[in-house]
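I am hoping you can look over what I have pasted underneath with an eye to the fold:
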Amino acid sequence: MKTIRAIAEMRESLADARRAGRSIGLVPTMGAFHDGHLSLIRAARAENEVVVVSLFVNPTQFGPDEDLARYPRDEARDSRLAEEAGVDYLFRPSPDAMYPDRFQTWVEVEQLAAGLESEARPGHFRGVATVCLKLFNIVQPHRAYFGQKDAQQASVVRRMVRDLDLPLEMRVLPIIRDADGLALSSRNVYLTAQQRHDALTLPRALRAGLEAWRRGADPIAAACRGLEGLDVDYVSVADLDGPTLAAAVRIGQTRLIDNVRLEEEASAS
């Protein structure tokens, strides 16, 4: 595995692969790898001849009161896991490289980026869409890999790809959960033992909402009942490439999101 920090070097390193017509897969990440990230990398490895993983804690998708400074970082561990997973290139640009002095061009996806996460995190999806477009332009992948846990993010990026006619395939893979049902997230490391126990209320409430949907009842009301006592940001059904029951809660200082795709889950039961 080769680690690259400069944008020009990243482009040059892939030039021969492009000329040879080799397929390139990109997994955009902010590091702090867990099995969810590794599932995306494994899929990219299985489906492409060249695999690029970007590791960039994107400052423009964090609000002023969010956890940018304390976001979990372990560069040595991430590098080791990426190499073990068969990554060819680990792209680790600096914020100054991605956002040079007087940077002023942004990507806005309007309707899909409204509501849900954007209510609590204004400007978040502008930062996500902009950094993803920059990564797509730098790497020029044939396929890009995202996780279903960030369902609104995946829908926003998919819409950007469609609207801007980007020549790549979006691959959105299922949520990876721990044995207890909690969706894997880099922010789970913030949770104390008691807070992690409390956090299990979130996937259970979403399952209750799914069961209500299957019975023809209100999934939002069912999920809300299951979240009583927690600090809830939202519970909503949104069209995120299909009807999706999504929720966000705060456990102590940690904000967790999760979702279930109602039609797919219902048909799989």
User: Anything to note?
Assistant: The chain has two domains: 2-173, 186-258. The domain at 186-258 is CATH 3.30.1300.10 (Pantoate--beta-alanine Ligase; Chain: A,domain 2). Residues 124-139 form the longest helix (16 residues).
